[in-house]
Design goal:
Elements (H helix, E strand, L loop, with lengths): L5 H10 L4 E3 L2 E7 L3 H18 L4 E5 L2 E6 L9 H13 L1
Antiparallel strand pairs: 1-2, 2-4, 3-4
Length: about 90
């Protein structure tokens, strides 16, 4: 999987408008009613990530979950990051 060029990254960001880019990472924070709901979401994300063979960094803060995606093997963003972000958006 090839690292995306800057113009490709911009086009892909348009597909996942709730995600923000910082350098070679895209991230999004999701808010839930309580810790249990946040954990249910994290478990659903884990199932998606396992199927995709691509795993986000996950930060859990009571009812908030921040997910960060990058393709470490390529040293930046690839289509895998944006594909998984779009799938995660459908969960949240």
């Amino acid at each position: 999987m090839a690292k995306l060029k800057p113009e490709e990254v911009m086009a892909c960001l348009a597909r996942v408008p709730h995600w923000t880019r910082r350098s070679a990472v895209i991230s999004r924070t999701f808010a839930f009613r309580d810790f249990a709901a946040a954990m249910k979401f994290v478990n659903a994300v884990a199932r998606l990530a396992e199927k995709a063979g691509h795993h986000p960094d996950i930060d859990i803060r009571w009812n908030r979950v921040t997910l960060s995606l990058t393709t470490h093997d390529e040293g930046g963003l690839t289509s895998r990051d944006f594909d998984l972000a779009a799938r995660i958006d459908r969960l949240g």
